[in-house]
Amino acid sequence: MKSGFEQSDSKFTILTRKVIRIEKTVQSMQAASRRPNTEPVEPDADNEKNEPSVEDGRAEEKAAKDAAVSEKDAKDATPRKDATVSEKDATPKKDESSGEEEEEEADIGEKIGDNSTEKAATPKQRKAPARKQQVLSPCGSDNGVDPDLVFVKEYTPTKAEEVEEAQRMALKQQATIDIARANVQRQRQLAASQVSPFIGDSTVKGIIPNKPRLGYGYDPNEPVDKDRLARLKKDFKGIFGPTKFKLHIPLMWWHELVTQTEWLADTHMDAVMNMFRHRMKLHPEWFRSDRLCFCDSTPSMLWQKDKWKRFLSTKPDGQGLGRWVPGGATDLFEGKAPRFCQTLKKWEVDIDEIYMPWNVKDAHWVALMVSIPKRHITVWDSIPGCLSERLLAKAIEPVAVLMPYLQRLMADIGDRYKYPLDRYTHEYISGGDVPAQDNSSDCGVYCLKFIEYHSLGRLFPKTLCGRNMKAIRAKLAADLYHEINCRGPPERNWEDLDNDI
């Protein structure tokens, strides 16, 4: 059996012989075409050898090119049997000399067939394995059954990812709140073209006061704190619910505050107003203005009835003064009373608006807001149409008359003429946007809540109603116990109140 190189040489020899045979055939055909029809002339062998024609040169050049191409093909690939057969068929003529060449070609073909048979019998087969049919995944891809390559329409995050996402959203929300607060609380400044060298002469400075924003310090609608309420119940047992026996004074006082069917006394009103004043002293920014005053029920208790009649019975002097004044009125004006959380802020100088609970005929509580600059009194009533105009004017007459009198009395002697003794105007607001009570015992709670909402700059909510009154009372009691350490009715110093002027 011949090696691969010998087989390549044999093929090259065969191809060379074929090229020579084709060349001879072409030459003979060309020579026959040049002979005349009458007398065939035999070509001169010497001339053919010595003087080749142009056609012979072209044929030789073509044969050389064909030989070069066949040599390149023989080097690149193993000869095939089909190619040999096709080449045999391409031969136009067979002569006697080609018989030997055909026999050699047959021998070479048999040898090539034997070589291919031996290669097929070897254990290492060079044929590529059959390709398996691909199985499409459920999502329609050609990735097979590999679960890592299957696309899922919905992604279910893990618990750790959910916690991380919640933390990220919380930080984002807090950052948004901080930015909003910074934009609201930032100090406005004048542009360079608006700055005036004359202090007080620039009208633009008046519209940019650069005062801190006040109000909305806390939410009065928040539910009662459970810890505060639990401590109150622990220290004062039996104050919630019906009582089967008579309670002593502190427990009875708490019981009246938290029970919806009980009427609030003046000591309850004073305790809650003291808590508002305590909040104002610690956090004035919580309220809509820092020039507010929370007065207790002292004017309501001592400026009416006999005290008021005595004031009217005394005659004034030439300046309209010299009348008898109820005890404690001047201390209230100068901020020395009440004793609890003294503000020491003088009305009109440091205070513009005064909140106070006012009792009408010992039967009904209303809320008053006295505006000193406007010389006006606003009245909020939780029972629509309870007070007529004549009855209301008579009920708040002590406040409407004593306020201008105290302004002139407490002013400097040279400035008293600036304060007229004209009565303050008043406005009665009831019904509509003012919540109304549905019983006869919650007027005191409504009065206190009107003062709280208005001082915070809030509107009266619809949730201020009888259905929530039990929770509102419990919240007031728990806040009193926790914030101002209230353990019962506040004490009133009657000796100071009796020092009439």
TrEMBL record:
Residues 1-142 are annotated as: Disordered. Gene3D superfamilies: Adenoviral Proteinase, Chain A. Residues 229-454 form the Ubiquitin-like protease family profile domain. GO terms for cellular component: nucleus. GO terms for molecular function: deSUMOylase activity. Residues 46-97, 108-117 have a biased composition (Basic and acidic residues). Residues 1-13 have a biased composition (Polar residues). The keyword Protease applies. One of its GO terms (biological process) is protein desumoylation. It holds the Pfam family Peptidase_C48. The keyword Disulfide bond does not apply. Keywords: Hydrolase, Protease, Thiol protease. Residues 98-107 have a biased composition (Acidic residues). PROSITE patterns: ULP_PROTEASE. It comes from the Eukaryota. Belongs to the peptidase C48 family. This is Ubiquitin-like protease family profile domain-containing protein. It comes from Microthlaspi erraticum.
